[in-house]
Amino acid sequence: MLKAITSVSAVLLFVKIIGFIKQAVIAAYFGATGQTDIYMLVSELVESLGEVLFSSISITFLTMYAGIYADKNELAKRQFVSNTVFYGLPVTIILMIAVYLFSPQLAHLLAPGYDTAQLSEVAKYLKLMSIGMVTMFISAVCRAILDAEKHFIPPKLEGLIKSIITIAFCVFLGKSAGVTVLIYSLVIYYIVTDIYLIANVRKLTSLRITRPERDKRMLTLLSLSVPLFISNGSVYLHNIVDKAIGSTLDEGSISILSYSGYLTNTIHSLVIGSVCTVLLSYFSTYVAEKNNEELRKTLKNCIRILLVTITYIVIMISVSSKEIVTLVYGRGAFDETAVKSSAIVLVIYGVGLIFTGIRDVLIRVHYAYQDTMQAMINGVIGMLCNIALSLLLAKPFGVYGIAAATVAAYFVTAALSAFTVKKHVRFSDVNGFIKLVFQLAAISAVVIAIGAGLDNLLGGAHYFIRLIVKCGIGTTVYFAALLLLKNKEMTTGIKKIKERIGRC
Hints:
Blueprint: H1 2-30, H2 34-71, H3 74-101, H4 103-110, H5 116-129, H6 132-148, H7 153-156, H8 158-177, H9 180-204, H10 217-246, H11 253-288, H12 292-329, H13 336-368, H14 372-397, H15 399-420, H16 430-457, H17 463-484, H18 488-503
Helix pairs in contact: 1-8, 1-11, 2-3, 2-5, 2-6, 2-10, 2-11, 3-6, 4-5, 6-9, 8-9, 10-11, 10-14, 10-15, 11-12, 11-13, 12-13, 12-16, 12-17, 13-15, 14-15, 16-17
């Protein structure tokens, strides 16, 4: 499993580096303006709708497919896939038509602060992107098959396709076509991704679409997917709510939230997403095999390692947020004001990584046990907290209040997940977890204080020099402190490195 996680993380790192370049190109060509606000708003909605609906089906599909996979029944696998496609496509087409026909109404819901001309632009872009709904369904099924078959790498290269297409469209058409070019690039990306994933499914598995048959498992798939749809919808609604409320603030607010969110989402994908991709497959297998002890042990170790890793990342973001934003976005139309605002939002979103990491790992246990109802309840409660706090904090604190509300909602869902997961698997070594949290909190305070001191010393230096020095010293202090405190994850990691060196 560790090898799989490492491989996925390495591929994602490369993909995200290209993704950074893509975002930098978008920022340089279009900056943080009203037009980019509209693009961010529309792309967020359509991709969130697709992700909510189709990831719900994908996750449920994977957990059920894992049971069939364990039985090594090739005919059953083929029939299950065929039935899923046969019943899922009509629903997807209806959704696509609905988005197209009701795009003006959706525009009003998404951007209550926009005028008539701006709403017309939003509606136009929604119609263009509605074609992506069908392609996203096909992609979701393909991803689930590949993950269940333990072929984790091909789906993770989707982001590379997206970045290459977006960069090409910006470079060759950006100046003449404006922000509209980004919408067209997404439509092309959806089509190309489907071709790529279908080719990989045909290449890496023996699966082929056959004539559909009556299958009671489709009702199970539907019954499990609906609460998961609501659960995932509540998670993605955080972003939609943020953007909708952001439309009532100053021009560029939505772009600030999106640019900063992209950075933390990238980290989330690299560290948390890669782990969760592999975990769901393994958790589902453990549940199918009734191996609860292995699941418990894996869960405990995974959360401890994530806490150590994510805390380090949050510290690095906290001490060098302005330098990070300047490095990625600080050129062209992206001015100093946008840099400062994005840096503050980045720090706030960065703290949220701790809670999303815990939440996303724990929720995979619920998914593996097909307990989608509990995941739904937790997600809805978090969503309601986000909406209430965003409305409360947006006016006095602007984009910073919106970001803080989102992080608070992440904390609520993480806490709820930690409480409710106990009905499936019991945590062990609670005192060990408490000790780890206190260790990380103390180290964080020290490193952040050192970072503040370095800010004063390096005030006039080039931003890249400040970034290297602060991250270098911060990294040294963080891991030295872990070693000094005899942190379990640190000592175990060093031991494994020594063993590998010894074998070489």
